[in-house]
């Protein structure tokens, strides 16, 4: 340990015995959308081997089975986690309550599993009362500015946006790409109402604790849980709102804010990032490892 406000640990082992369960972010922590992070997979597996429970919690706008298939394709074994909870899971539950309300989808075709098997009244955005936003249609080239002509009229008409992924950006390989949260932010600028499904909002954490109770065979109280993530406005803020401790993974979407001389993590910069937080992370790691 150091005398810094946020201790920068060499790995997660020192915290393993303190918490009965981890709620672990996926993109940017366990993989980058292209390859798995071996150190993170090892840490999760070792934590579970020691009796801990792991729920992977992601703002991906697809249901858990689709994310499990993606994890398998990236070589992440199911022995590294107990359950997956997604923003898509929460969004599907929301969609079951809208009846035949006219709805339009903005997002890529890969998000089709979100609505598979559902009977919804789809229409064009200019006729919809609900805009289901799962992301940009082509996040490799598009930006939120490309959607202004669609979003502004919808906001003026009073359509509500369901944002199925509150992330603004996510790491894919070495690049950062825009997510549905970026479009939701623009929609709010136009005066539109947005209902968010994932982190840092309460419904996804409520679902996580339901899954933990099923896994553990008992109620897991919030003081027993550690949230692990790299997003300050999603993982860390969400943990604080949910009343759980957090471990900040500094080698993620905010890594440039942490690096000092020689591209090494700077504990002073890390402290500065959280100087106004009354419940900062209990520690940080530069990449999740054991």
TrEMBL record:
One of its GO terms (molecular function) is phosphatase activity. InterPro entries: HAD-like_sf, HAD-SF_hydro_IIA, HAD-SF_hydro_IIA_hyp3, HAD_sf. It holds the Pfam family Hydrolase_6. GO terms for cellular component: cytoplasm. CDD domains: HAD_like (cd07525). This is HAD superfamily protein involved in N-acetyl-glucosamine catabolism. The lineage of its organism: unclassified sequences, metagenomes, ecological metagenomes.
């Amino acid at each position: 340990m150091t005398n810094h406000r946020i201790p920068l640990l060499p790995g997660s082992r020192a915290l393993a015995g303190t918490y009965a369960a981890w709620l672990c972010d996926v993109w940017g922590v366990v993989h980058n959308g292209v390859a798995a992070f071996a150190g993170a997979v090892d840490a999760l597996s070792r934590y579970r081997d020691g009796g801990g429970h792991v729920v992977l919690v992601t703002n991906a706008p697809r249901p858990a089975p689709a994310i499990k298939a993606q994890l398998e394709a990236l070589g992440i074994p199911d022995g590294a986690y107990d359950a997956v909870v997604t923003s898509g899971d929460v969004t599907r539950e929301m969609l079951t309550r809208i009846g035949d309300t006219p709805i339009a989808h903005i997002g890529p075709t890969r998000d089709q599993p979100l609505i598979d098997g559902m009977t919804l009244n789809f229409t064009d955005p200019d006729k919809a009362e609900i805009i289901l936003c799962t992301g940009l249609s082509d996040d490799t080239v598009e930006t939120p500015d490309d959607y202004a002509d669609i979003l502004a009229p919808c906001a003026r008409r009073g359509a509500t946006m369901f944002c199925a992924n509150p992330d603004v950006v996510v790491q894919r390989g070495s690049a950062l790409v825009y997510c549905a949260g970026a479009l939701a932010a623009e929609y709010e600028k136009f005066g539109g109402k947005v209902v968010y499904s994932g982190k840092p909002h309460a419904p996804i954490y409520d679902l996580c604790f339901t899954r933990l109770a099923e896994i553990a065979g008992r109620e897991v109280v919030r003081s027993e849980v550690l949230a692990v993530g790299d997003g300050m406005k999603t993982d860390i803020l969400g943990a604080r709102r949910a009343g759980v401790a957090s471990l900040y993974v500094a080698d993620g979407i905010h890594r440039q804010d942490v690096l000092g001389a020689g591209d090494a993590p700077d504990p002073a910069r890390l402290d500065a990032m959280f100087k106004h937080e009354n419940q900062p992370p209990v520690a940080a790691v530069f990449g999740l490892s054991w």
